[in-house]
Amino acid sequence: MTSTKYIDLCPLARTDLPAILGIRNDHRIEGDYQPTAPRPITMRMLEAHDEAGLCALSSGGEDDIEFGIRDPNDPSGALLGIAGLYDVDPWAGIAEVGVTLGYEAARGRGLGIDAYVALAMYAFDGLGLRKLVGHVKGSNEAARGTCARLGLVEEGVLREHRWLRGAWEDLHCYAFFARQWTPDYVDWRDRELDLPTSGEIRIRRTTRTAS
């Protein structure tokens, strides 16, 4: 439904359930990306969840929109992760954004940033939303780095708000506005984000030399 050069965001299918089950039962993934404590999930529970029309990573319904993240160059169509807009409020023009990469092979390649860019393109250009928000645990440095790289504005910190691995974690609140969005973000790998303190975003072309 929406894509960049490196990832496709596609509807989730019944055949994705085994991969989703692996994501839901990996405490490292759930601990980093989900807002609540990890809980074991069985295939039967996940199948019932799917039959009820609920999302893979939330218990929401029509207010949540989820996509599977896939590599457009992988003929197997393997599920790399899940990207979603949650608590979509068309009247206020706001949604919470979330990206979960499920396997080590999918990480460290910039695919998370690609997924956030594709979600923003869908949210702002497709749905006409005006603001995306995200909540990131203080210890999740990779996600916080992604927020900074994309120019998300940190709006505040909820102190000791989540229990994670035996300690209370701060929850950092970020926002990204439609007025910041530009199609140039799709080519972020070939560009350098210039983020002045004013919050306005400029993107300049970078030159790559052959190695």
Description:
This protein has 211 residues and is an alpha+beta fold. 24% of the residues lie in helices and 31% in strands. The strands form two sheets. Strands 1-2-3-4-5-6-8-7 form an eight-stranded mixed sheet, with helices on both faces. Strands 9-10 form a two-stranded antiparallel ribbon. The longest helix is centred in the middle third of the chain and has 16 residues, at 111-126. The chain starts with a strand and ends in a 6-residue tail after the last strand. The model is unreliable at 193-211 (pLDDT under 50).
Q: How are the elements arranged and paired?
A:
Elements lengths: L1 E2 L4 E3 L6 H8 L2 H7 L9 H9 L13 E6 L10 E9 L4 E8 L9 H16 L4 E7 L3 H10 L2 E12 L2 E11 L13 E4 L7 E4 L6
Keywords for this structure?
211 residues; alpha+beta; eight-stranded mixed sheet; two-stranded antiparallel sheet; 5 helices; 31% strand; disordered C terminus
In short:
This protein is of the alpha+beta class and 211 residues long.
Mean pLDDT: 78
List how many beta strands DSSP finds: 10
- The side-by-side strand order for the widest beta sheet comes to 1-2-3-4-5-6-8-7
Distance between the termini: 35 Å
Inertia-based shape: globular
- Figure out the total of helices: 5
Structural class: alpha+beta
Biggest sheet descriptor: 8 strands, mixed
Q: Could you give the order of the helices and strands?
A: EEHHHEEEHEHEEEE
The percent range for helix content is: 10-25%
Radius of gyration: 17 Å
